[in-house]
Amino acid sequence: MALRPRSPGAAVAAVATIAAATVVISALLSSLKRAVDLSASAKADLPLLAVDPPLPPPPPATVTAARKSATRAHAVVVGGSIAGLAAARVLLRYFETVTVLEAEEIDVPVVDDDAAARAACVRPARKNVMQYSTNHIVLPLALKLLQALFPGFLDDCVALGARHSLLLHNYTSTLFGVSVPPLSLDDAMRLGPDLDTVVASRALIEGVVRFRAFKDSGLLRAVKDGQECRLRYRPGTVANGLVIHEGKVQGVHAFEKISNKSEFLQADIVVDASGRAAWGLKWMRAAGIDPAISSYDPNIKYTNFLFEDETPEDDPNHIALVSPYWPVNPHRSFAAQRIEGGVILAGMSTSAEGEN
User: Over the stretch 265-289, which tens digit does the pLDDT of each residue have?
Assistant: First the structure.
C-alpha cells in the first residue's frame, strides 16, 4: 500500500473510549436484538411503564383476526442501523407490518433509479453510532448472512467501491512479530471455499443494508408513489418506554422529534436494536425483571487516519494488519485497509491494559 496524508500535515482522526471488539473487526449482526416480550412476568403498575391515559381502543377487527392467524399483526423495532434493519427483514416474514423507529433524521430517498437511491442511503457520519469511523470488515459468516437476508448485498457494496477480498489472499499480516505474507489464490482456496469478505467503511456497509431493506420491502417505491408499505420506517422517532397492560407488553410510546408529539404504537413484539443505549435492558429492569448479563469491557481506545490511496488498482493487498504491537506493547494494534473513494483508512488501538 502507498500512503499519503489526505490533507496537508494532518490526518482525519476520531478518538473514543468504547466497549467494543478489536479495531479491525466489527462483527456485523452481533448487536443484541433483544425481543422484549414480557408477558409472563412484567408488572403493569410501575410508574415508568404504566399506561396513563388508559390504553387506546383495541385495533380494528381485521387486525385482531390477523393476530390469531399464523402471521401476527405488528412488530416494532427500536433502532434503524444494521441490526435493526436486519431484524426488520426477518420480522417481515412473520408479521403483517413492521415499524422501525430510527432516532436520527435519515429519510427514505425519493429518487428515480436504484443507483441514486443506493448512494443516497450512505450517510458519511452518524452522531449516535460508536465506531462509525473506524476499520470495518464484513467477515465470511456475516457476509453469508447478509447475502441471505439481502440478496445483492455484495454486488451493491462493490458497486459503491468496496473491496471484495479473500481472507489470507488479500491480507498482509504481522502477528506477534511474525510477518505473514498473503497466500496465492490457489493456496487460499485450498484452505476452504468460504473466504469472501467485504472491506469498506461502516458508512458504506450500513448504507447498503439500508438500501436493500428499503428496496426489497417495496418501501422505496411506496414512498415515491405515496403508497403504504408493510415496512414502516419512522426517522427522527424514539421509543420512550414499553406499554404494559395486565402483565403483557402492548407496544411502545413513540416520540417524534420534528412534531414534538408522542403516540402509542401497538405491537405484538418489541425488538431492541438500540445499540449502546440498550433501552431494552432498562425497560426490563423497570418492569421488575433483572436479566442475567455476562459482559466484558475491554476499554478500547482508537484513532483513525485517512490517506490518499496511491496503490495501483490491481495490487492484491487490501488490508495490512499488525496485531499486537509486539514486544513493545502487546495490547496495541494497527490496521490499514483500502476502502472506497480512493482512500486508505488506517487505525491504531489499545486495550485497557495497554498504554494510552
Answer: 999 999 999 988 888 888 888 888 8
Find out whether the peptide bond into 124 is cis, omega within 30 degrees of 0: no
CB atoms within 10 A of CB 26: 23
Residue owning grid cell 427500536? 78
- Span 178-201, pLDDT tens digits: 788 888 888 888 887 789 999 999
Cell reading at 224: 415515491
Mean pLDDT along residues 99-120:
94
Q: CA 115 from chain center: how many Å?
A: 21
Distance (Å) of CA 257 to CA 236, 279, 329: 6, 18, 46
Maximal C-alpha separation, the chain: 69
Q: What angle do CA 356, 16, 355 make, to 5 degrees?
A: 10
- The model's pTM is 0.78
Strands 319-322 and 171-175: parallel
Cell of 20: 467494543
Task: Give the C-alpha separation, 306 to 300, whole Å.
Answer: 20
Distance CA 139, CA 113 (A): 29
Answer for the pair 300, 18: CB distance below 8 angstroms, yes or no.
yes
